[in-house]
């Protein structure tokens, strides 16, 4: 009842007046003025009491409404005094992988902030407490109770709570945002690569097409059959066919089944296969393989394709002949294959572009072969490294993990 204070105080005034009259046996006319004054004062006091009680009830209801609202917010909310957590809502429990509030309340907020961000967080807390101005959307990383590390955006503001000078921090999980950003960056990089590849294809195919068109026009104008023209046009058509074939090899999906296989016979087969071409170019291949090498989980045909491409590049890098040394050995969890030639080498300024599509140092190359090799080695969890010196040759090292 909202009138309980007034009813009680007026009733008390009436009772006290009646008792006074009964004890002192005085006439009611003499006490009437006093009675009216006391009753009015009692009524005023009761009204003030009812008003204060009503305001208190409204404040409690508002506080409960705010508490329920904060509890249901989708963003994590933490209230902390200096570094000690006093309150956390349901979203905050889920963010830090807590099974209940008791796992978080009373703990230091620095328990959950990664060490790299603790100094910055301390400065922000001091700034908010000193200047009473919010600090908005600062990025931090939090360590959850289950060990996960999540990127977050934190906004903090000064707010009294339970009679204490506290800070309210709203924490937003940025994991999905970061993943979406990474996906957008990856897509943009892929689009850039597609654009680069398309430009390279257009350039590589336009040159031989221009030559073919020119010789056809010359043949029509001169009105005579020229075998040398047709030889050049056939060469240019072969080049277009080579580019298209290598593009198909790069782009077509291949079902790869990895098996546990010995890599020694693979390399020996490839060297035997390419030995005839090497002899025709006055190139000698020396093969040195460490004994008892462990097997690899790999795809045989793909690795053979890599070995063939690397050896062919080495042969073509030595137009005057020479020696290619092929060494295979085990080094700390990897099997390494080194192909060392005595060729013309690669200039240092060209090294960063090695492996890009349509970038090549060979007269009739496309650059797609080495790009394919890198893709295959990467799919096997390995690495392909190239070092070179002008006129001192090139070393290609392939590292494949044993496990």
UniProtKB/TrEMBL annotation:
<keyword id="KW-0067">ATP-binding</keyword>
<dbReference type="GO" id="GO:0005524">
    <property type="term" value="F:ATP binding"/>
</dbReference>
<feature type="domain" description="Histidine kinase">
    <location>
        <begin position="200"/>
        <end position="403"/>
    </location>
</feature>
<dbReference type="InterPro" id="IPR005467">
    <property type="entry name" value="His_kinase_dom"/>
</dbReference>
<dbReference type="InterPro" id="IPR000014">
    <property type="entry name" value="PAS"/>
</dbReference>
<keyword id="KW-0812">Transmembrane</keyword>
<dbReference type="InterPro" id="IPR036890">
    <property type="entry name" value="HATPase_C_sf"/>
</dbReference>
<dbReference type="Pfam" id="PF02518">
    <property type="entry name" value="HATPase_c"/>
</dbReference>
<keyword id="KW-1133">Transmembrane helix</keyword>
<dbReference type="GO" id="GO:0030435">
    <property type="term" value="P:sporulation resulting in formation of a cellular spore"/>
</dbReference>
<dbReference type="InterPro" id="IPR003661">
    <property type="entry name" value="HisK_dim/P_dom"/>
</dbReference>
<dbReference type="InterPro" id="IPR004358">
    <property type="entry name" value="Sig_transdc_His_kin-like_C"/>
</dbReference>
<dbReference type="InterPro" id="IPR035965">
    <property type="entry name" value="PAS-like_dom_sf"/>
</dbReference>
<keyword id="KW-0547">Nucleotide-binding</keyword>
<keyword id="KW-0808">Transferase</keyword>
<dbReference type="Pfam" id="PF00512">
    <property type="entry name" value="HisKA"/>
</dbReference>
<keyword id="KW-0472">Membrane</keyword>
<keyword id="KW-0749">Sporulation</keyword>
<feature type="transmembrane region" description="Helical">
    <location>
        <begin position="6"/>
        <end position="25"/>
    </location>
</feature>
<dbReference type="GO" id="GO:0000155">
    <property type="term" value="F:phosphorelay sensor kinase activity"/>
</dbReference>
<dbReference type="InterPro" id="IPR003594">
    <property type="entry name" value="HATPase_dom"/>
</dbReference>
<protein>
    <recommendedName>
        <fullName>histidine kinase</fullName>
        <ecNumber>2.7.13.3</ecNumber>
    </recommendedName>
</protein>
<dbReference type="Pfam" id="PF13426">
    <property type="entry name" value="PAS_9"/>
</dbReference>
<keyword id="KW-0902">Two-component regulatory system</keyword>
<dbReference type="InterPro" id="IPR036097">
    <property type="entry name" value="HisK_dim/P_sf"/>
</dbReference>
<keyword id="KW-0418">Kinase</keyword>
<keyword id="KW-0597">Phosphoprotein</keyword>
């Amino acid at each position: 009842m909202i009138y309980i204070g007034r009813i009680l105080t007026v009733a008390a005034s009436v009772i006290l007046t009646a008792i006074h009259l009964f004890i002192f046996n005085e006439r009611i006319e003499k006490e009437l003025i006093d009675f009216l004054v006391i009753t009015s004062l009692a009524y005023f006091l009761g009204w003030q009491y009812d008003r204060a009680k009503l305001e208190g009830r409204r404040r409690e209801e508002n506080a409960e409404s705010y508490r329920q609202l904060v509890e249901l917010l989708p963003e994590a909310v933490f209230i902390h005094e200096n570094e000690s957590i006093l309150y956390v809502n349901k979203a905050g429990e889920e963010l830090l992988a807590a099974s209940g509030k008791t796992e978080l309340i009373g703990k230091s907020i620095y328990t959950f902030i990664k060490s790299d961000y603790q100094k910055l967080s301390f400065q922000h807390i001091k700034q908010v407490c000193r200047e009473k101005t919010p600090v908005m959307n600062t990025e931090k990383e939090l360590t959850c109770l289950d060990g996960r590390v999540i990127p977050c955006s934190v906004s903090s503001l000064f707010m009294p709570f339970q009679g204490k000078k506290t800070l309210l921090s709203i924490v937003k999980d940025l994991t999905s945002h970061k993943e979406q950003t990474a996906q957008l960056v990856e897509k943009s990089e892929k689009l850039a690569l597609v654009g680069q590849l398309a430009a390279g294809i257009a350039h590589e195919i336009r040159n031989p097409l221009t030559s073919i068109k020119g010789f056809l026009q010359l043949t029509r104008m001169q009105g005579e059959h020229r075998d040398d023209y047709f030889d050049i046009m056939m060469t240019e058509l072969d080049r277009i066919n080579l580019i298209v074939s290598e593009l198909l090899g790069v782009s077509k999906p291949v079902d790869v089944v990895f098996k546990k296989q010995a890599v020694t016979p693979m390399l020996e087969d490839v060297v035997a296969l390419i030995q005839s071409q090497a002899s025709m170019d006055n190139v000698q291949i020396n093969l040195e393989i460490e004994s008892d090498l462990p097997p690899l989980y790999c795809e045989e045909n793909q690795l053979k394709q890599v070995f063939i491409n690397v050896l062919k590049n080495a042969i073509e890098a030595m137009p005057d002949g020479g020696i290619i040394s092929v060494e295979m050995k085990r080094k700390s969890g990897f099997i390494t294959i080194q192909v060392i030639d005595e060729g013309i080498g690669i200039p240092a300024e060209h090294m960063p572009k090695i492996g890009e599509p349509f970038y090549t140092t060979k007269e009739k190359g496309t650059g797609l072969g080495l790009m394919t090799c890198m893709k295959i080695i990467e799919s096997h969890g390995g690495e392909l490294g190239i070092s070179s010196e002008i006129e001192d040759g090139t070393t290609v090292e392939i590292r494949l993990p044993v496990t």
